[in-house]
Design brief:
2 domains, 6-stranded antiparallel sheet, globular, Beta-Lactamase
């Protein structure tokens, strides 16, 4: 996260606080003051003041070995999802899709060269990668990412993929530009994407784009499965038609939601 703003309105202290929050992740859920300072590049006194402020606000707690985030941090992400209305719109459709496929289904959006999960209905199964709201993966190696990357103009695509991933995962598939472009052309032509163990061993999924009222792709929705349990043929023959129907229904409902006037009534 850049700490040097581009204008006089940039608040460096806020940027530093967010940087401390994002320094925590699955591989390091608890960190000492020294580790926070090292991970963020902040001076120890600065990191300490930020941690104490976050603790007072309820976003950080003191742990056995340093500091850890609290569940209140989830409010930051939930506020984003709620502000879009995506979860309220998608929830019944995702639940119906899960019942029909008996597989986990998710919605994710692009964030730089990554996808970030913003909605999910999971089926208890053993998979090689844990996914929850806020999880991020490199976009190009996921079906959810492919359907969104395929919708970008060439210049925008290059700009997005030039940004370094913040997922901490090294995907199995490392295509050159020609192979990448061919894969995205196929996605554009079909209108959906398949990923077969390109992100990680055992992970197989299909995804379709979600669109707003203007037809712009705003997210992706997928059906995710374990490669040892669900064949590509099963994904394409049975799950794909259900997925495409679900994507169309969510997009239609979201477009309708956008047309509803939102009126704020004053308490006075």
């Amino acid at each position: 996260m850049p700490r040097d703003g581009t204008g006089p309105d940039f608040i460096e202290a806020l940027a530093r606080g967010l940087e401390v929050i994002t320094a925590f992740h699955q591989d390091r859920p608890t960190m000492t003051l020294a580790e926070v300072a090292s991970a963020t590049g902040l001076a120890r006194p600065t990191a300490r003041r930020i941690l104490l402020t976050l603790r007072e606000l309820g976003y950080v707690r003191e742990a056995e070995r340093g500091y850890a985030l609290t569940p209140r941090v989830l409010e930051l992400g939930v506020a984003y999802v709620r502000s879009m209305g995506l979860w309220d719109v998608a929830r019944p459709h995702l639940e119906h899709l899960v019942r029909k496929t008996n597989e986990s289904c998710s919605i994710a959006q692009l964030d730089g060269s990554d996808i970030v999960y913003v909605a999910r209905v999971a089926v208890p199964k053993i998979v090689s990668l844990a996914v929850q709201i806020g999880t991020r993966f490199p976009a190009l190696q996921t079906s959810l990412g492919k359907v969104q990357l395929a919708a970008l103009a060439r210049d925008e695509l290059e700009r997005v993929l030039a940004q370094p991933t913040r997922s901490g995962l090294t995907p199995r598939w490392q295509p050159d530009a020609a192979e990448r472009d061919a894969a995205l052309r196929d996605v554009r032509a079909r209108g959906w994407a398949l990923t077969d163990e390109q992100l990680a061993l055992g992970i197989r999924s299909i995804a379709a784009p979600l669109r707003d009222g203007s037809g712009r792709v705003i997210a992706g929705v997928n059906v995710n499965c374990h490669a040892a349990e669900t064949s590509v043929e099963r994904l394409l023959d049975h799950h794909l038609p259900l997925l495409l129907q679900t994507a169309g229904e969510i997009s239609a409902d979201f477009a309708q939601l956008e047309t509803v006037p939102h009126v704020t009534v004053s308490a006075s």
